[in-house]
Amino acid sequence: MNMQSMYSLIDAVNEAEIILIGIGEEWTPSYEDILSDKSVLTGLEKLSALDNQNILMSSLQKMYYESFHSEQLKKAYHNLFQLCGSKDYFLISLNVDRYPELAGFENERCVYPCGNMDYLQCDMNCHNELLLVQSTYQTIQNIIKGKIESSEFQEEKCPYCGGKLVYNTMEAMKYCEGGYLEQWEAYMKFLQKTINRKLCILELGVSMRFPGVIRNAFEKTAYYNQKAKMFRIHQTLADVPQNMEQKVYAKYENSVAYIANLFVS
Ligand SMILES: [Zn+2]
């Protein structure tokens, strides 16, 4: 169903008892954006001599994610949070930033299955363990701020196999899933609560990269809930699944722009 011919997303959210949000790659800042940031550029210059460029680039990415640089993204997350109001909600993001948290979403109601930048892991995941990133990240920040020389950087290694440490994201050679499993369980419990309740599903900018996590999974949730309404907004991938024309509303538009431009009181 085309969004023009239906009642608005805001009305649907207002009528719903419970809201499920899926955030995809349209909400990921591009490398271009990240690399055009001044402090990231300074970081690149000062850290170019380091061996572990993986840790370096990811740390600069983490630094960038710690505040909103894009006003549009900030507005979009703000609107999304306002839309939820005091309703029961859960947010699942395929990104590794913590923008939802910056916008006010509670961590207990979010899950990030593609990883996080709070922990490091052995690239080969030899012991399925996570290590706090703090000291490595602090050192990198101190180098960028000019407090210490880059030559003083000592790369942390895996305490078990001596291998490379990387951030706990899908980019790792072997991803350690321990970083999100607790929240995944919370998400599963939330899904049970949605049965027979007026559910509004917002699928925003989600590509086909991991269809089992959001796209197909959301369709299934919408299919089995008689009272569900689902909104799928994506620049190029906004198809309506067969036989679901009555409950899935789709819009071919950039979902960040769409949500940022909503008039939310
Ligand atoms: Zn190891």
Explain what this protein looks like in three dimensions:
By secondary structure, this protein is an alpha/beta fold. It has two domains: 1-29 and 70-113 and 180-265, Rossmann fold; 33-69 and 117-176, no CATH class. 36% of the residues lie in helices and 18% in strands. The chain contains ten helices and nine strands. The strands form two sheets. It has a six-stranded parallel sheet with strand order 3-2-1-7-8-9, sandwiched between helices. A hairpin with a 7-residue loop joins strand 4 and strand 5 (130-132). Helix 3 (38-47) packs antiparallel against helix 4 and helix 3 crosses helix 7. The longest helix has 14 residues, at 71-84. The radius of gyration is 20 Å and the shape is globular. It starts with 8 loop residues before the first helix and ends in a 5-residue tail after the last helix. The relative contact order is 0.20. The model has no long low-confidence stretch (mean pLDDT 91). Bound molecules: zinc ion. Zinc ion binds at residues 122, 124, 126, 158, 160-161, 163. Zinc ion (ZN) binds at residues 122, 124, 126, 158, 160-161, 163.
Number of domains: 2
Note the gap between the termini. Answer: 26 Å
CATH topology tier name of the largest domain: Rossmann fold
Estimate the strand proportion: 15-25%
**Small ligands present:** zinc ion
> Which percent range fits the helix content?
25-40%
CATH superfamily of the largest domain: TPP-binding domain
Count of helix runs: 10
